[in-house]
Structure formats: C-alpha cells, structure tokens
C-alpha cells in the first residue's frame, strides 16, 4: 500500500477498523543505528492519516488477526499481547530491520527480485499516480503535505507506464499505421 517500513512496524490493531476497512496511521517504530527501537508519533502531521483499506489487504488483515489469535492460544503464557499487527509468533513486535529481513526471505522464497522496502513504497505510489489518482490524494496517501514534492520524490515513470500516451497518439492518428504498411 506504499507505507513506510516504520509505519508498518508501528501499526497497532486498535488503529485498524476491520468492520469499516479503515487503517489509521498514528504510530511508528523505527530504528536508531539499526540497533535501538524508537517509537513515536507519525513522521509528520500529514503522516497522521486514515486510509481506506483496499479489499485484498482488508481481507488479509482479518485472516491475520485470526491467525494471531490461534498463535496466542497455542503459545499460552509464552505469548506477549503487545497489540501490534506485525509481530512474531510469540506476539513481540518486529522492528524495521526484522521486517526488512523477513521481506527479503519472503522475496527469495517466492522467486521475486529483491527490492528495498522504500523502493516498494515508490513503486506503489508510482502505480497510483499512473493509474489516475489525483496528486492531492497521492500526497495524502503517502503521508506528505506537498503534492509536487510527492510526485518528484516517489513517482518514477517507466516506458510501460506510458502505454496510455502511445494509445492516445494511436487514436489521434486514426488507430495507428495503415494496413498498407505505411510508416509513422
């Protein structure tokens, strides 16, 4: 969904309304020197936001909460109920380093190219931008106050993203090269 790793690690169940499908971003868990966890409010005032959950993550979060309940039951007294979403099987919250390592293991297991989590954030925001999400909504989704900065920083247009522009030129020219083999 294009969240910052510290926002993912800081996400608590009390900030997610699974009935309405809304995720509130109010808390982060980041690392200092890749050693010490620092928990704090959102990075900026614009970073404190409520996001409607897309259907797939909404359903996945419902299933994940049920899985955590089963893990809590199985672990008994060994489980620590911290209230965080991203936890290990004993309920302890992951930090951004552990999240990154987990994501890399998952990428390898699935045969995916390994990308930095921040690059995945950029890809998500680029996807929204090239699919017509208005700049002001894109900035709000990213937790940024400035739409121009958001597009400059996060949106990276690739050739495949420009197919709509090529199609517009085809329409302008009457559907593309003539059947007779005429060159453009």
What labels would you give this structure?
184 residues, alpha+beta, 2 domains, two-stranded antiparallel ribbon, 7 helices, 12% strand, elongated
Strand order of the largest sheet: 1-2-5
Count of DSSP H/I helices: 7
Count of individual beta strands: 5
Low-confidence stretches: none
Kindly report the CATH topology of the largest domain: hpI Integrase, Chain A
Helix content: 40-55%
Structural class, from helix and strand content?
alpha+beta
Helix and strand run: HEEEEEHHHHHH
Instruction: Label the CATH architecture of the largest domain.
Output: Orthogonal Bundle
Roughly how many Å apart are the termini? 40 Å
Determine the strand fraction and express it as a percent band. 5-15%
Main CATH class of the largest domain: Mainly Alpha
Q: What's the alpha carbon Rg, rounded to whole Å?
A: 21 Å
Outline type: elongated
Rounded average pLDDT: 88
Largest sheet: 3 strands, antiparallel
The CATH homologous superfamily of the largest domain corresponds to Intergrase catalytic core
Number of domains: 2
Organism: Streptomyces yaanensis
InterPro entries: DNA_brk_join_enz, Integrase-like_cat_sf, Integrase_catalytic
Keywords: DNA recombination
Protein name: Site-specific integrase
Gist of the model:
By secondary structure, the chain is α+β, with helices and mostly antiparallel strands.
Tell me what you see in this structure.
By secondary structure, the protein is of the alpha+beta class. The chain folds into 2 domains: 1-114, hpI Integrase, Chain A (Orthogonal Bundle); 115-174, no CATH class. 44% of the residues lie in helices and 12% in strands. The chain has helices at residues 5-10, 55-75, 96-109, 117-130, 135-142, 147-154, 163-172, and strands spanning 16-17, 22-25, 27-32, 36-41, 49-52. The protein has a 3-stranded antiparallel sheet with strand order 1-2-5, with no helix packed on it. This is Site-specific integrase.
């Amino acid at each position: 969904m294009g969240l910052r790793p510290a926002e993912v690690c800081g996400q608590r169940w009390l900030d997610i309304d699974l009935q309405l499908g809304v995720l509130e971003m109010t808390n982060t868990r980041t690392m200092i020197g890749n050693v010490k966890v620092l928990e704090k409010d959102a990075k900026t005032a614009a970073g404190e936001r409520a996001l409607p959950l897309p259907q797939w993550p909404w359903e996945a979060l419902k299933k994940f909460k049920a899985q955590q309940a089963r893990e809590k039951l199985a672990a008994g007294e060994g489980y620590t109920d911290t209230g965080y979403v991203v936890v290990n099987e004993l309920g302890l919250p992951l930090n951004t380093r552990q999240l990154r390592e987990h994501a890399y293991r998952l990428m390898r297991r699935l045969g995916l190219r390994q990308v930095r989590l921040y690059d995945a954030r950029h890809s998500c925001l680029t996807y929204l931008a090239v699919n017509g999400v208005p700049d002001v909504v894109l900035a709000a989704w990213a937790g940024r106050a400035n739409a121009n900065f958001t597009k400059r920083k996060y949106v990276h247009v690739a050739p495949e993203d420009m197919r709509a522009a090529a199609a517009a030129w085809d329409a302008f020219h009457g559907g593309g090269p003539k059947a007779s083999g005429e060159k453009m």
